[in-house]
């Protein structure tokens, strides 16, 4: 396996963020995710905004190492995940047809289509659509991990609260912040993580 060599700008970015916030007391995977999200956003508040459990992240990391599929709620999240192909049915005409026929949102329809393709054990990544989180919970998709980071003032916080209350293995954040870049950064942190390396 090839060890990833970060670009010098990324190395310098990490040096700066580590000079501004000390995340070393965090468990290793949680720290890796927090640092990658802060690196991607230049927003130090994520140091205290992210909510998860280390065992949830470990389960997601192990699943990714084992080749588990990654399902995203939109193309922008998929585009930000740089190390792996993803499954994304948001733009699939079948999702639009299903949404109309079942009187559900297109995001919910995309979750149904994705689950029929990947089955249990996938890593689900939501950066935009709160409805996708509610559908993931309702469908009982048996995920390895759900990264739920939709952004916005309408439904985003509630969806993340529902995700945390669901008992599913999850990574979310407390505030209305989030978005595609944040969700993708969290996945990338797990994909890039190597045990024993800072």
Q: Indicate the percent of residues in helices.
A: 40-55%
**What is the topology, as strand order, of the major beta sheet?**
1-5-4-3-2
- What proportion of the residues form beta strands (DSSP E)? 5-15%
N-to-C order of helices and strands: HHHEHEHHHEHEHEH
Structural class: alpha/beta
| Mean pLDDT level | 93
Extract low-pLDDT stretches.
Answer: none
Amino-to-carboxy terminus distance: 18 Å
Query: The biggest beta sheet, please?
Result: 5 strands, mixed
Number of separate strands: 5
| Shape category | globular
User: Over the alpha carbons, how many angstroms does the gyration radius reach?
Assistant: 16 Å
Count every helix, treating DSSP H or I runs of 4 or more residues as helices.
10
Summarize, please:
The protein has 198 residues and is of the alpha/beta class.
Describe this structure in words.
- This protein is an alpha/beta fold.
- About 55% of the residues lie in helices and about 10% in strands.
- The protein has a 5-stranded mixed sheet, with helices on both faces.
- Helix 8 links the parallel strand 3 and strand 4.
- Helix 2 crosses helix 10, helix 6 packs across helix 7 and helix 8 packs parallel to helix 9.
- The protein is globular.
- The model has no long low-confidence stretch (mean pLDDT about 95).
């Amino acid at each position: 396996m090839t060890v990833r060599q970060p670009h010098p700008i990324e190395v310098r970015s990490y040096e700066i963020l580590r000079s501004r916030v000390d995340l070393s007391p965090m468990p290793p995977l949680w720290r890796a995710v927090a640092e990658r999200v802060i690196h991607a956003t230049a927003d130090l508040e994520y140091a205290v905004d992210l909510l998860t459990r280390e065992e949830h992240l470990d389960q997601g990391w192990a699943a990714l190492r084992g080749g588990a599929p990654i399902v995203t709620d939109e193309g922008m999240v998929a585009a930000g995940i740089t190390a792996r192909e993803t499954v994304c049915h948001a733009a699939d005409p079948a999702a639009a047809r299903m949404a109309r026929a079942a009187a559900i949102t297109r995001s919910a329809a995309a979750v149904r289509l994705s689950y029929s393709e990947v089955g249990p054990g996938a890593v689900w990544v939501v950066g935009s659509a709160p409805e996708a989180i509610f559908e993931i919970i309702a469908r009982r998709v048996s995920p390895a991990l759900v990264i739920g980071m939709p952004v916005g003032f309408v439904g985003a916080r509630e969806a993340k609260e529902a995700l945390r209350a669901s008992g599913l293995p999850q990574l979310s954040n407390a505030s209305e912040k989030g978005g595609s870049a944040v969700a993708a950064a969290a996945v990338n942190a797990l994909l890039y993580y190597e045990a024993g390396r800072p």
